[in-house]
User: Fold these one by one.
Assistant:
Number 1:
Amino acid sequence: MASSKSPTGPGVFEADAVLGLLKLLQEATRATPEGGPHTYVPPTGGEIAEADYHHFVFGQRGSGKSSLLRHLQSQMIEQSRAAVWIDQEIFSNLQYPDVLVSAVYALMGDISRSLAKRVPQPKKPSLIDRLLRKKDPVSDEARLLGEMQFAVGELEKLKFAPLDRKIEWVVVDQTDAKVSGSAGIKVELVSLQASGETSNRLSTTATEIIEGSKEQFLERALPTFRELLSRAARILNGGFVFVDDLYQLRRLDQPLVLGYLHRLVKDTGVWLKIGSIRYSTVTFRPGDPPRGMQVGHDAHEVPLDRGLRHFQSTQDFLERILSGIAEGLDVDIYELLTPDARKRLVLAAGGVARDYLRLTSGAINEARNRGVTTKPGSHRVIVEDVNKAAGLLSPSKFEDLRKDEPEEAATLEAVVRKLTEFCRVTKAAYFLVPTDDAKLSDQINKLQHLRFTHLLAESETVPNEGSRRFNVWFLDVAELSAQRATQGMDFLGWESREKRRNRKLIFTGTVPETESASKSKSQTRGAKKTVDATSVDTISSAGAGKVQAEALFDSLDGNTARDE
């Protein structure tokens, strides 16, 4: 066990290996196709996303959604199955239906490229074959690849066409159509000058030229795309389509994109894995016809928000991630961080993995900046280092709030400020919210998804409050630190049920008076009563008149208002 006394030599955080750890921590906070450091720790319950079924992977920013999806992607690649990645953040500035066209183009393009790896390259014809103009028969796989590539080319032209452009396409009910590189295609754009070379002979039963919008084209082409996808999936043994950061799209567009993708892959052997923030996602919109996907009906949910309700298991999970990153550098995190600092890191991160790693990096930097002092334990990373690092995250969290909730940003920011002052007065970083206050509960719940509040316990009772129920919440350490409210603050008292059931911790949207403010107000009221009983009588009896008495009252009233 590490000693709490500070040695005379350099701090543990000053070792060269810790510098290497800082670099790895930066890399580990972003999921990449390569996966970053090989430190993936499966989250509890995340294994169900491996099943051949549609799944919504819900979690706060930094909870590990993309890491889980990247892990599943690597599994698909190892199994030689389709692994399509659609990053919706890239398409977030596009309007509908261009955002849908881009997603379908990415999906069909990736499937086409995966298929190309399976189709053997045609043999180079011999001299005799060339003289006799003999051609090898085209395999079914090669024919399918040609059709897929043609469809991808049509989608590419549709993608780059102006949004307001009228689209013309020809629908061919083919029996023996001969189209260069696209035999079997039933829907082909004609107004955008398709580049495929078409023969003059078309043996068809019906040909129809249609003018419409991009969305209408996608609807008419859907059966063709589904057929191609089904045939490709049989060769590729199915696979997963990963739709990451769905919440980046406009909420009005989300069910439209989901609905089309779901109809596209339905019964094809290809499955959707959708990563998003629950509160910022609209998966389904009822109507005639309904749009989107229903959680529990069309897809199952994989929740990744660990939170602080199971504090010890959350701490164990986060420290396994950190240890996995540090062990390759021979850095002992239990020697580097004091026990209190380790707990504070979990609290400050709210159980969110990315925030935890960022805070660990920030706390190490704070310790390196201050150096070893005379304070016991200062040769390691201590609680004060974590608090300072947390305070630096506060501005970015408010930026996320304004981005994710632009219409309610001002209201929610005001609630955060009131909560901070409330906790400063109560000297506790945790508070109670009555469940029967629907409006306040909704606001606190929104702040939870924005990582300003963290749920600790549900449906708690409080003495002398009858049958009323309360949820126990924890205020983000970053905000407390940014407002210099950590001094003397109780951060772990909520672990005791008796402490968290204190009536003084009930937050109703207002901030109670501090003891000093209440005492000052009481003294002011007492002074006013004394004047009322003596001074006014004295002034009146002395003939000073009503003017002086009224002026004295005005002075006292003004002082009372300022104190309040």
Number 2:
Amino acid sequence: MTFDSNKLKQLLETTAEQPVANWEDIRDSVMFEALTAKFEANLRLRAKLMGTHDEDIRFQIDDAYWGTSNDGLGMNRLGQLLVEVRANCRARAEDTAAIQCAHQTAADLGRVCCHIMGGEAADVFLYFDDMFAEKCHLVCQRCGQDEPLRHESLRLICSDCVSEYLHSKPKAILGARAPKARNTTVHFDHEDIVLGGIGDINIVAVSPDLSESGPRWFALAHDATLWQFDFSKHMANRMCDVPFSHLDWGKPISLVSSANGRFVAAYNTKGQFGCVLSVEDCQVTTELDRGNDHIEHYDFSVSFFESPSRTLLIHATAWNRLDITDPAVKQLLTERQQPNRESLRPEPDHYLDYFHSRILVSPTADWVADYGWHWHPYGLIYSWNLQVWLQTNVWESEDGASKHYFAGRPYFWDGPWCWIDDVTLAVWGYGDDDCNLVDAVLFFDVTTGQQTHWFAGPHGDFAYDEFLYCYSQDEGTSVWDVATGECLVTDRSLKPLGYHARSRTFLSRMPDGAFRISRLMTQP
């Protein structure tokens, strides 16, 4: 440890703006105040100090007054003062009414259990006293299992220190808002299907063919071939080689299809290029290029939607621009002059400082939601009226009157989400920073940008069809009642590639190469 008491004296002289003539008389009290301030300012450091329990503290430094030498000589005043500070910290830690840190006023406080503050528990849980509480307590698992919570175990700290503990990544939500389950007979039925003629095909992306009521899917293989799998007929159809050279098959690729099954779009998920293929003749109808600005950090914006007379495509054409194209005739429907921002000049009209990322079109194609981010970097969902953008105002996606933003979290975007109805968006994660998000689902009204309600528990990708489906490769699939916030069933064996909304089935690939079609059964 490097220690120089002369620096403390020099700092004191700088603050007092005059020489300290009686340094030897006041040095103990000055050092004691400095140590007290240090351990009040850093509660994790304080926990380490308290973790020394009743042991002597000795500093082996080359200072006969403040420390001790290797042979034990020296007054060790620094160690003795730390023992005094430790005793004061311990006394304060026992006082449930005392503010444990010295950062803010009593108007901005949170509560943390004494076991976390004392360094006895590493895992942090969020505890809510009741269903309507806006603030939660940070507790260890032992305290969180007490019913009711023993509030005498909680200590007051400022909100900044609460945020520091939240950087430990909370494990779950406990108390009144803990995840709930309902005993039901709901379950999944599974059917394993072997498709002939596909060999050991390596599938890189799938998309449901919603033009059919049965479970039919489009699939991209790693050898750049496009397939159609019809699981009702147990048939596989190799449609074509993908005639587009700009796709990087060594990096993740996504596949989306239009609702009428006429078009599919293949693109590098975090890449620059993609293409739209006509399913009828497998020809490229539209090439996609969004530029290369930081594209490794966010998903390509691509989504089909149906207008009354044609299939249209929303896609990114720059990091901060979306367009609508008719892929059948390669017609751009949102032509406008892109504004450029000049250094040290005000932003021009319609300039958007936002990286467009994953997008979703609402079920009736009235709204668009965009899960992108601002510098530096701050994830934020934008929503705006699709019909106004298409028919009235080509700048609606930049700064239109219908535009709202919500679910802002630093360093987090492209998270799980889905539509619940045409104006309600379900978004994963309770918390205000990427490092403290906990499994939960938040519901937002896209017409206002306001959160309506939330509940804890959902984990993984989202799909909605009467119930909220949450699925992942690590925890399987769970089914939630969005009206009550209860989990109806969890099937840890079901780790699907995606959901086919029209047939209401999931598609999975089994280790032996077979496919599995899974359907939720609400009756025994």
Number 3:
Amino acid sequence: MDNATAPTPAPAPAARDRALGILATTAVLALLYVGRDVLIPITLAVILSLLVAPLVRLLRRIGLGQTSSVIVAVLVFGVSFGAGATVIGAQLVRMAGSFPQYEHTVRRKLTTLNTLTVGRLSLITGQADRVISQITDKTAAPRTGPAAV
């Protein structure tokens, strides 16, 4: 069985194919960038409709009509979103109000962080400068003493 040959590997994509792929990707991204003013609201509408659809189906099975099911589902999601935003907003206001209590602690931690990072770097840089200056002083200083013959 001398005629058995190893399978040949697939050829690498040509530079032309890669260039066309890059150009196609660039064109798609450019179109998405230009159309973002239209595409973002459409995308949000699709996402919201996917969120509301299960609740609408449940309300329809219970016996409400299509319009009332949609209105109730949108109100439920609106109230839920509003409640979540209210809770987060209240926590942000409370955190902002208590910031003066923690200002000293935050400053101390930032000072410690600065000392451990930038301070260490300054110390290492200073030591390196001293070593370099010592080396340059030794090489630049003329030799004193008897000359070797």
